[in-house]
Design goal:
By secondary structure, this protein is α+β, with helices and mostly antiparallel strands. It has two domains: 16-39 and 94-171, no CATH class; 41-91, no CATH class. Helices cover 32% and strands 35% of the residues. The strands form two sheets. Strands 1, 5, 6, 7, 8 and 9 form a six-stranded antiparallel beta sheet that branches. Strands 2-4-3 form a three-stranded antiparallel beta sheet. The chain is elongated. Mean pLDDT is 91; it is low at 4-9.
């Protein structure tokens, strides 16, 4: 009787190395808090100068929302942007929130790649901890990627690798 109870109780255990949506969600959500979503890439630093009309339109919207300040040199037609306290709070790349994976849409069959079993996992997510400026309609209008990510209907794909203890996001 004791052996039957032990076998039945072990049958219900979930292994962290199993290729399941639950394990994928747990792995992705453990990774995401250290990787905020940002408006600007690592090549953009402040103070930032531009004469590109599209970039000026975007950045002037951030000026309107008190994220940046602007100075203009009309003799050479350049706008020079610096961060306000609000901008500095968002970080050097103007981060606007953190993802929380809510559902696994699909994944490729786990297969050997780069010395590990890997799978590409597509997941749905919602943003949280968004600053007020990132929620404003005019900012979202000039940054369509931000608008899509804030919609609550966004998806992304991430590669997960299997090691001895479970799934992880490779470096």
């Amino acid at each position: 009787m004791l052996i039957v109870a032990l076998v039945l109780s072990l049958g219900g255990c979930k292994n962290t190395t199993d290729p399941t949506p639950e394990n994928y969600l747990k792995t992705i959500n453990a990774y995401l808090p250290d990787h905020p979503d940002c408006l600007l890439d690592s090549n953009t630093t402040f103070p930032f100068e531009t004469s590109d009309p599209e970039k000026i339109k975007q950045l002037d919207t951030l000026v309107k929302n008190q994220v940046l300040t602007v100075g203009r040199d009309l003799s050479i037609k350049v706008s020079r942007y610096t961060m306000t306290a609000t901008g500095k709070a968002a970080g050097a790349h103007l981060c606007f929130g953190y993802r929380n994976a809510t559902d696994i849409v699909s994944n490729t069959p786990p297969a050997l790649a780069n010395g590990f079993t890997e799978t590409a996992v597509t997941y749905k997510y919602k943003l949280h901890d968004m600053p007020m400026w990132a929620k404003s309609a005019d900012v979202q209008a000039v940054f369509p990627t931000l608008a899509h990510e804030a919609s609550g209907d966004a998806t992304d794909t991430i590669t997960l690798a299997l090691d001895r203890v479970g799934w992880s996001v490779p470096n």
